[in-house]
What does this fold into?
Amino acid sequence: MFNIYVKKMVRFGQTSVLLMLNAIKTNTMTADTLVFLDMTSVETFVNPVVHYVVVKSDRYFELQTVPATDNSIEPQHQYVNVIGITRIDEKGGCLRLHSYDERGKHIDERKVKEAHKDEPIQLTHGTVSQFYGLRREVEGEGNESEMSTVSLWDIKTKRHQKSVSLFKAKQLVGAYNTIFVRTETALVVLDLSTMLSVDVTFSRACEMPEQTALWLNKELHNISVLASRKITRVTPQGENVELYRMVFTADNKVYLLDRPCLNRDDVQAPLNVTTEVEIAGRATEACYISEQVGFVVVVTLNEETDVYYRDHLYWYSTRGELRGVLPFLGEGPHSLYSVYLSGDENQAETEGWYLYFTDGHSAICCIKLH
It folds into this structure.
């Protein structure tokens, strides 16, 4: 009998969940397993697609290599329906990137580079026709360079579409049409389709220059897109413009970011920083609710191994004003979910936005935000 441990959970696509499991039977046998769950219905849920290996020297991932910096339930947007996972192949002396669609079908496999001890796992996201990732360049005789390449691959042709080299890139996250790369000295924002640098603009509330090609021009330790949603805004000219709104975190700050869905007249759409708030700790989850209600962020000051681990839920307006705090939640994930309910006609003031979540103490909670 195997002892099974859930090492990571990732949501992507419209209804898909990926479980990365480590199953141990004896000291000499492991079965690193990928389980793709389709949440469309009960029937699809109880019939998962499973990929596994039962070879000691050939694993999908090592226990220590599942990245702790990535939010385990990072809500990937509905257009991300391909995921790539680096599989450690010690027998061949190399790393191989395997890509899967949201139903768990194995799409492609490619050699990434020579394997190194304690090689970190890289989760790569993309669309049904292309996906993107970050890899370290290799110099002569297998020596790693200080340059890294952000690449966009075409799954059908199995060729690179576009790529850009960056100095000392450490982490890559993406959402919709935008890629964020954390380097040793700054945050780089790239357009997904062109791989060109994106200009960053700031609203008046952020007290920053109106436009710049450099944003967060300093060393960062962790970045993440915690939540994202497509919204519609009305311009001063009366036009409806669709935007991607993202809740983005960099170290101890959280930002609301907007970017138009489409570039117009071959002009690359800028990224607009609409709100900036400083938090007491690191953000682990978020949920954007609406323009009127704002957004919520889960923050912790603890490490995951702390015995008295606690999370705290902060509610902010879209202008960055603190509207409420719910302290002392247990360990997440809290699976934040917001919904607008019409209410009970027999009870006053029941219509409005409600937030559902697990409190980390074996209960499911609901809060009315008004």
